[in-house]
Amino acid sequence: MPETVEFKSNGGTASGYLVRPESGHGPGILVVQEWWGLNPGIKEMAGRLAAGGFTALVPDLFHGEIAAHDEMDKAASLMTTLPPDRAARDMSGAVDFLVHDEGATGEKVGVVGFCMGGMLSLIIAANRGDVVAAAVPFYGFPQGDSEPDWSGLTAVVRGHMAENDDFFPPAAAQALETKLRDLGKDVTFTVYPGTGHAFMGPADAFGTLDNDLAAEIWPGVIEFLHNQLG
Question: What is the CATH number of domain 3-229?
Answer without folding.
Answer: 3.40.50.1820
